[in-house]
Amino acid sequence: MKKKLGSIFINTRFFELLFFTTILSFCDNLSFAQPVLPQRSLSVTATQGIHFGTFCLTSSSGGTVTVGYDGSRSSTGDVLLLTKAPTAHPAIFEIKLCEGRNVTINFDVSTILNGSNSGTLTLNLGPTEKGINGVSFPTNSDCNFFTQLRMGGTLSVPGGAIVGTYTGSFAITFNQE
Predict the structure, then answer these.
(1) pLDDT digit string (tens) for 16-62?
(2) Does residue 77 lie in a domain region?
(3) pTM of the model
């Protein structure tokens, strides 16, 4: 269609085609890609070791001290729990894994602790707040937040255990699924 503006004729169809051609040429330079995928690496930080607090034996029979993953503490046999510091608490791990993937934990159920004045105690690990050894659980789905895992255990105190501070370590394996 042509329109007369004064003495100039303008072809509007020509400008429509020019406009669409220009738009299409801009679209040529666009590219589309998949979004950046979140990290797949698993990071674990031990933020607190397990601690059984202060206790003593009232006779030579022995017993146990248990610290739950929730921080509760109990004893059996001739073990007397004292309220003196330091207080008991579970081990805490912070797990970071994006996309809400699952993590499976595996650990040696039993380990030996060595005393400052010789002697040894046996530490039986678990359960965790997520379950027992070999449990699989989902992590938080946001990469900016950590999933906490609390772990308790039971300390076997034999009759005639030597007074002192007992320390040790244990291995825990975190596998992502």
Answers:
(1) 544 444 444 444 555 556 665 555 688 899 999 999 999 999 988 99
(2) yes
(3) 0.74
CA 150 to chain centroid, in Å, comes to 9
Tally the C-alpha atoms within 13 A of residue 173's C-alpha that lie toward its C-beta: 8
Question: Pairing relation of β-strands 120-128 and 110-115?
Answer: antiparallel
Domain that residue 112 falls in: 43-176
Degrees, nearest 5: CA angle 148-96-129: 25
Number of separate domains in the chain: 1
Rounded CA gap, 120 and 156, in Å?
10
Find all residues with CB under 8 Å of 33, minimum gap 6, and list them: none
29 within domain boundaries: no
* Calpha distance 65→52 (Å, rounded): 7
Among candidate residues 70, 151, 139, 140, the one with its CA nearest the CA of residue 104: 139
Residue 54 lies in a domain: yes
Residue whose pair of structure tokens reads 């005393």 in the numeric block = 115
Question: Is 154 within 8 Å of 113 (Cβ atoms)?
Answer: no
